[in-house]
Design goal:
mainly alpha, transmembrane helix, flat, TPR-like_helical_dom_sf, 23 helices
Length: about 525
């Protein structure tokens, strides 16, 4: 038998190990105190925690809800082209269903105009408006065939507003007029108009001469009797206007002349009447200017308002009325500075009634609040030593507020508030006078520096402080105009990026600073067109 064939001895035991029962020193299952095992050293992974999963799921749900609710404003801010494309799509949809224009801003015209306001070079918006004009002409023809003449006139007016080709519009207008004339009995209308003219009932009601003549001419534009009757009636009205001007009743005369212009802008006697009205308006403005210089504010206000009632675009009268409001606001500031609050409130009410959005009115309101706060800090029973300490604290507060550029806000802690309090406490103190003389140049420098840096809010705060410290400064009107134009420029840039809310705010700021600022009207029109749901 060979060695390999020999069997091992039966008494030999081979080593074996149950590895599932072996415990190692670093095994988490080993709770033996000899190894000093601590379960806190081996926490489970964070991704296995149910609490982490629950919070993560909740955060994801909240983020999804925010994105759903605010998807449109977020898209307008971060992707302005998305907002423009959305407006174009909405305009296309409204055009397809025939909703060409709507007062609520949901018509095709309004959507295309809003897109054009955000991007003036968008050719799709211009093409859309041209389609709206053509669709309006189609609607006018359809309404004419259905004898819905009021709707036909409205559709034709929309087409003309969107500058449809004149030849096409004229053709539709002629067809509409022919249809209207074919279904109307003109002779009774003409007889009624002539009878009203003979009775001296020229205007003021639907059954008077001029409205009846207009109805006849709308149906038959060449009817000689109606043309001659209207001419004579308008001449009689202009004679009434001349009589009113001779009596100094400019507003009443202007109303009569406006009615004549509405009936026939080309009347032969109208230019002479308008020239007489303009001369009367110039005289009225001159008299109001004299009243304003003499501080007769109530008379000046009435004079300017009379002129504006007949000539709403009269710039001199508008500017004069703004000066009246500023004068009332200045009165309110002075009365508040002397702690005469009843008189200050009365003057402020007048200014607010004339120009509620004026920056001067806003500054007067703030001055009144500051004066009340300053009065509350003063106590006549304090000793000279205490008053001296109060003055020192105020001067120190002025220096700190100046370093922070807190010229007019916050109330009670601004440079201006504390200066007025110091002046009320010690008006003859040399330190107070020195601070007052030093602050005005500092405020003007602040305004110029902040404006150059396009920091509009801070620049406007410095401008307000300048106006408060020196309301009659000759450089203020130009500074206000510059500030307004800066608001217009920045607002226009933000509007182009889709930020309609900021553009609206910029428009309000510019309008309050300088209502006649160059470019304000155009910017206001862009903002108006961009405001769609």
């Amino acid at each position: 038998m060979s060695i390999n064939e020999q069997t091992p001895p039966r008494d030999r035991i081979e080593p074996s190990t149950d590895w599932d029962k072996v415990r190692f020193r670093d095994d988490p299952r080993n709770n033996d105190d000899d190894y000093g095992y601590d379960e806190s050293r081996y926490p489970p992974p964070a991704w296995r925690s149910r609490r982490v999963w629950r919070w993560g799921l909740l955060i994801l749900i909240l983020l999804a809800a925010v994105l759903v609710v605010f998807r449109q404003p977020l898209a307008a801010v971060f992707w302005p082209d998305t907002r423009i494309q959305q407006l174009l799509d909405q305009g296309d949809a409204a055009l397809r269903i025939g909703q060409l224009s709507a007062s609520g801003g949901r018509g095709a015209r309004q959507y295309y105009e809003a897109a054009l306001a955000l991007d003036g070079d968008r050719s799709e918006a211009r093409a859309g408006l041209a389609k709206v004009a053509e669709a309006a002409l189609v609607q006018a023809r359809q309404y004419t065939e259905r004898k819905q003449y009021d709707r036909a006139h409205a559709a034709l007016a929309l087409a003309n507003e969107l500058q449809v080709p004149r030849a096409n519009a004229t053709q539709v207008a002629d067809t509409l007029r022919q249809h209207e004339a074919g279904g109307s009995d003109i002779e009774p209308l003409l007889k009624q108009a002539l009878a009203a003219q003979a009775a001296g009932r020229l205007d003021g009601a639907p059954d008077t001469a001029l409205p009846l003549f207009q109805r006849v001419l709308s149906l038959q534009p060449g009817r000689i009797e109606a043309l001659e009757g209207r001419e004579d009636a308008l001449s009689d009205l202009l004679k009434e206007a001349q009589a009113l001007l001779a009596q100094g009743k400019v507003a009443e005369a202007g109303a009569v002349i406006a009615r004549v212009r509405g009936y026939d802008p080309g009347h032969v006697d109208l230019p002479a009447a308008q020239a007489a009205l303009a001369r009367a308006g110039d005289n009225g403005v001159s008299r109001a200017d004299q009243d304003l210089r003499a501080r007769r504010l109530e008379a000046a206000r009435k004079g300017y308002e009379d002129v504006l009632s007949t000539s709403p675009d009269e710039a001199r009268a508008r500017q004069g009325l703004d000066r009246v409001a500023a004068a009332y606001a200045e009165q309110a500031r002075k009365q508040a500075g002397d702690f005469h609050f009843t008189e200050a409130e009365a003057a402020l009410a007048q200014a607010r009634e004339i120009a509620p959005q004026s920056a001067a009115v806003n500054e007067a309101e703030q001055a009144l609040v500051r004066a009340r706060a300053a009065e509350a800090r003063l106590d006549a029973r304090t000793s000279p030593r205490q008053r001296g300490q109060q003055l020192a604290d105020l001067l120190d507060g002025i220096a700190k507020a100046e370093a922070r550029n807190d010229w007019i806000t916050p109330p009670g802690e601004s440079v201006y508030d504390q200066l007025r309090a110091a002046q009320a406490l010690a008006p003859d103190d040399a330190r107070v006078k020195s601070v007052a003389a030093r602050l005005l140049p500092a405020v003007t420098r602040c305004y110029e520096d902040e404006l150059r840096g396009n920091r509009l809010r801070r620049a406007q705060a410095c401008l307000s402080a300048w106006q408060t410290l020196s309301p009659g400064a000759s450089a203020l009107p130009e500074a206000r105009r510059q500030m307004a134009q800066k608001w217009i420029a920045v607002g226009g840039e933000r509007l182009g990026a889709g930020d309609v809310a900021f553009a609206t705010q910029a428009l309000n700021e510019a309008r309050a600073l300088a209502p006649q600022a160059p470019g304000l009207h155009e910017f206001a029109e862009r903002v108006r067109m961009a405001r769609v749901p």
